[in-house]
Amino acid sequence: MTGAGERSSYLLRAGLVRNVRNGEHLTTFVVAGVSTVLITRLILGLSGYPQLGGKGLHIAHVLPGGLLMLLAIYLLLSYVGPVVRPAAALVGGIGFGLFIDEVGKFVTSDNNYFYQPTAAIVYVVFVLIVLGSRFVSNRRPIDEREQLANVVDNAVEGVAGGLSRRRRAHASEQLRAVGPDVAGRREARALLAACPADEVELAAPVDAAWQALQRGFDRLATHPMAPTMAIVVLAVQAIGAPLIAAGIRLDDGRLLTDLPVLGVAAGSLLSATFTVRGGLRLRARDRARAVRLFELAVLVSLLVTQVFQFAGTQFAAVGGMLLDLVLLGLLGAESDRLRREATPPAA
Is the model's pTM score more than 0.85? Predict the structure, then answer.
């Protein structure tokens, strides 16, 4: 092995085996964290920003946030197998959201919760978490030995308490991705077969929610009007985002020199360029390339435009961010469908 193969072998020997569901767990963590920040700000705003405590004491919500993150760590350290991870991701995300919401107090000398760049700081932190995870996950393909390790991980709960048909089918599907010459494959198959049947499962509302969401995106992606609607939404965003930022900053008298406005304009222009190119590829019936260009347009909006939008308009930019995430989910579902169609069936 050379290059990536050598790094893969070294990491596996060191025990750094990636979880094939890390993307789902990270998404749960980020969505829970962002939702917690927004809900916390909404509740505090509606209630007039009350303070818990008295007589010189103030119980900031960073404290319950830390306790929830501790609980997530405790769950991951105390239980084996994949069942506990969705719950830990959810609890940890809520705790991190409560923690990062008070970042204004941490970076200002006067403990200013209303520090104006807070929204942009929070957004950038979550973006960096996502980018860092994608780098770790995508810098090299999942090794077959990692797939096999995940199969065994799924069998852990079955050894002790039995496997339901659903979980057994999921583990068997993972096993099919492992080549017959990989050491341990036959033993892993035998381990799955040896696990007793048991239909009792710990409730997994997070998994059920993501599966329902994925089915919804799959249905939307196959709708005949989906490409047209994606182009329309991207075009409206490319035009509307600079207008919103400029409208809020117009009274400052610094419209043409204001960094957030200029950043939003630059990001919108780049996003519009990818959108136009995607539309042209769609007309040329190159759907796969068109979807990829549309994905790039959305990613530019999320990673450039929205950063400056949050810096300029604070939490008023949430609507644009949510729209981008919906578009990204829709385009991701279509990309997966096209990839499945292009992959020849297994012999």
Answer: no
